[in-house]
């Protein structure tokens, strides 16, 4: 199976569990963590590529779901519609990775997609829906 990018969203009670260890050891999956933000006692997320035999792959994902982890499949990253963006700055205060920030002195809102960890928080915050994401190739 080719590498598949997935986004894992962790509830606070599982952030300290050795989930990657189990994916590798119990399900023989190859894990390539691309981005992560995991802190004790807080919700966390991780973007990773996961490769393995189809049966083991599904079993590994089921294991994660049983731990309460939400899984989204990622084929595209976050995109900002620059024509729609009003540079209001609302997204910059909630972006955990610094991918969205205000450039001074122009006060223009900049989006650096290489810093984006695809947490999705900005999607709900933008008042004009200038930020979009493709999951499984569909918006
Ligand atoms: S999805 Fe939005 S809020 Fe989350 S890291 Fe990317 S730009 Fe920032
Ligand atoms: S919240 Fe939306 S409109 Fe405001 S700066 Fe961010 S992307 Fe632009």
How do the helices and strands line up, and which of them pair or pack?
Elements: E1 4-10, H1 19-25, E2 30-37, E3 44-51, H2 54-66, E4 70-74, E5 78-80, E6 100-103, E7 108-111, H3 121-125, E8 131-133
Antiparallel strand pairs: 1-3, 1-4, 2-3, 5-8, 6-7
Residues 78, 95-97, 99-100, 116-122 line the site of one iron/sulfur cluster.
Structure in a nutshell:
The chain is α+β, with helices and mostly antiparallel strands and 139 residues long. It is built from three helices and eight strands, in the order βαββαββββαβ.
Which characteristics define this entry?
binds iron/sulfur cluster, Alpha-Beta Plaits, 8 strands, alpha+beta, 3 helices, elongated, 139 residues
What does this structure look like?
The protein is an alpha+beta fold and 139 residues long. The chain has 2 domains: 4-74, 2-Layer Sandwich (Alpha-Beta Plaits); 78-133, 2-Layer Sandwich (Alpha-Beta Plaits). 18% of the residues lie in helices and 30% in strands. The chain is built from 3 helices and 8 strands; from the N terminus they run βαββαββββαβ. A 4-stranded antiparallel beta sheet has the order 2-3-1-4, with helices on one face. Strands 5-8 form a two-stranded antiparallel sheet. A two-stranded antiparallel ribbon has the order 6-7. A hairpin with a 4-residue loop joins strand 6 (100-103) and strand 7. The protein is elongated, with a radius of gyration of 17 Å.
């Amino acid at each position: 199976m080719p590498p598949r990018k997935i986004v894992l969203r962790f509830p606070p009670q599982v952030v300290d569990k050795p989930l990657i260890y189990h994916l590798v050891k119990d399900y023989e999956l190859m894990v390539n963590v691309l981005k992560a933000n995991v802190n004790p006692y807080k919700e966390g997320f991780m973007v990773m590529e996961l490769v393995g035999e189809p049966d083991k792959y599904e079993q590994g994902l089921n294991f994660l779901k049983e731990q309460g982890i939400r899984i989204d499949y990622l084929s595209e990253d976050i995109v900002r519609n620059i024509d729609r963006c009003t540079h209001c700055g609302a997204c910059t205060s909630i972006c955990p990775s610094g991918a969205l920030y205000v450039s001074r002195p122009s006060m223009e809102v900049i989006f650096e997609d290489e810093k984006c960890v695809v947490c999705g928080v900005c999607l709900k915050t933008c008042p004009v829906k200038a930020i979009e994401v493709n999951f499984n190739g569909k918006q």
